[in-house]
Amino acid sequence: MPTRRTHNKTRLGCQQCKRRRIKCDGKHPTCANCDKKGETCSFLQLAPLSRLTGPTLSRGPATSVSPLSEASSLHTLSPPDPNSADNEAAKLKRGSSQTSPLAGNQLVYFPTPLQRDVPPSEQCLEPRGSSSPKPPVPIYYPEMKIWESSIPPYLRLNDVWKGIREPLPPSLQDVLYHYEYTTSLTLANDDPAKAAWQSCVPEMAHAHDFLVNCVLSVASLHLGRLHDDKTQKINMNALAASRMNKALTTYRLNLENITATNAAALFASSTLTAVYLFRTSALDIEALRETIPYGTVIPPPGVVDKMMSCVLRTVWGLRGPLTVLMSGWNYVVNGAMHPVAARKWWPRRRTPATARAEEEDRRLQDIDKLWMDTDKAWEPQTRHLNEALAFLRETYALVSQLTLPGVFPPMTAVPYAVDDNTTGVLTDRGAIFVWPTQISREFIQLLESKDRDALVILAHYAVLAGRVRNVWWLEGLGADFVTAIAMAIGIENWHLIEWPARVVGVNLWNAFGVRQDRLVGKPDELHMDVI
């Protein structure tokens, strides 16, 4: 019996494809469906000028045109006669190049293949021998059925990355485009923070090279996640590592002197570095998993140590933004990255918000019996264990409060497995990163020494990351944490992390087999490839 072919849902298509209820390929600046049917794709209104055009030549002093008058010109002008003199003049003015409707008061064009090899000073749109400038001729674009003057000024976007993009080789320019249009929108789930990553970061990057390299690194990782070809994945991941190494050399120097001029850029870079560490840790653990023979229950100690190193790398990674915030809090929250750093609307009193949250809080509370009911109760490390567990209970409570529908300001929420079987929404996924920034250095040292009780607490924290859906740089993180911890504490202690393993879908007796995620394929889950 033939099976129905599956397809990937996307909510990021153009308006024309949505209206016709067909799948949009999301190609910019015009999707394939609109290009095939000759329709005006809505993506054209969102693409910056630099994406649609090549070099620009000034047409003269800019004149102020209101949106109303520009909109009215669409109705007063009619398509030109192909044989008219005006149209011939327009063709002459356009030459063999394609002009862009988003140019506004500038005549902009795509150079033809021959023109790309000619110096800009020799590229000319006017016929040679013309003695005086002629008044501009309105240009009609039959493929889009619009006049040049009909594009409202407020849709003619400036290229905020222009000064940084132009010196880069074409391959890195493509990576920067990917960050601008895609990766930047995956770094936050609320609209103000997305705007900061998309618009404010390039402004800061002009003065801070380390931020440029962090951007290129994370965008390369994202491209590596989306590529199907293994060679392309390897190349993109290698490029990400190279750019991150370049970023860290100057980032560390600036970190020693946090000022009003570099605090926001340092905070953005440290956050991007944490994203890089999340993703590369998952990639490294996946590579280690591939080296372990099928059916292995406990891998060799060397492999376990490497897996734990990957896990601890992510914990230390979140300390970077904390370091910047502690030294330059006022600079960051009063600057461009305020929407990313500040969370004034979070509830101050953090208590479990649902019956299920109360049940999980009781489960967490019982963890302290591992040391409080034994001789360890009087050891110095007990204070750090109690403190870390208290912070984890607060984080669980905060996440439960932020999953309540309609309680907090509406924004783009992230899918979240509220009960491990159905997908709800988490208003702000930043809540799951609170705990690693609160724990003490002494507790992290307990993790590094593979202290059983500290690792059990960390395994329960992994549930929060494991429940987040559709965030490419958190993909598999919760399961990786639990798997590494299970190998480190030994089979005799697996009963202590049985619940976290069940929640994140790890079969401890077959941890290196195929992972089962009960939420994969649910109708309300956006496919990972889209994001």
Automatic annotation (TrEMBL):
This is Uncharacterized protein. It comes from Macroventuria anomochaeta.
